[in-house]
Amino acid sequence: MKVEEQINTYLTSLPELKGKDIQQLHNLICELYPTAKLWFLDGKDAANKIVANPNIGYGKHIIKYANGTFKDFYKVGITATSTGISVYFFGIDDKNYLARNYASRIGKAKFTSYCLKFKSLTDINTSVFKELLHNVFNRSN
Description:
By secondary structure, the chain is an alpha+beta fold.
């Protein structure tokens, strides 16, 4: 199954309101960054065991491991959680950067290192969210 089909299957499997919010975030990111690579992680490990929530990813980030190996991954990822929505941002060295620069302006949301958590899309300031996306997508790694 192609990535776009996996994403659509995931989006339609979500509860209505959360699915609508994730769809709007997906549309926003795809509109702002139409050439960004799309990813879909189903949350399962090699043994087909669920170990995480499914994620939709955007862009490309290279993870450098301590042992000298590399792995391609996404720069921004979104997922539905039991309590709302999480947006992950990769390629930022300072784990306090997001909270320090966006927490006071983003709205009713919480930052934890490289993750933004909120209950509903109406809880965040989309202009600040777009600024944050721009910052992350324009970082080189």
